[in-house]
Amino acid sequence: MRCPNCHAEIPNDAVTCPTCGLEIEHEPTVTFVPEVAEPAQPSVESITEGFALVVERGPRAGLGWVLKEGVTTVGRHPDSDIFLDDITVSRHHCRLILDASGLTVEDSGSTNGTYVNGERVDRAHLAPGDEVIVGKFRLVVASGHA
Asked: How much is the pTM?
């Protein structure tokens, strides 16, 4: 298991991270294997620049987030930037990184994994139209230009 804060390796029964001291909560995540389907098309047509992530299918369909530069956290933890409240989502599931090289998704050691276009990934570059699966949520990457 890795610390969601500093990514140091920590024992499964630890209550705090030995490196940074973060309190580790051990709420179980339900195992879930997504069905692979045809890639969905983005439903957000109105963002003017940058990237957005839109729930295409699953709980909260139609909801979207405009991504800002830097790191955006995704998970079941209430402090996540993108809070996905479902037991198939790990508390600290993945991170989206937006920088000069583009948009990247990085799994944070989640139980069910992070999928891009139907393939489980640890880290992947994202492009408009890509589908990111986090638990039961099917999210589509949308972009726009001013």
From this structure: 0.68
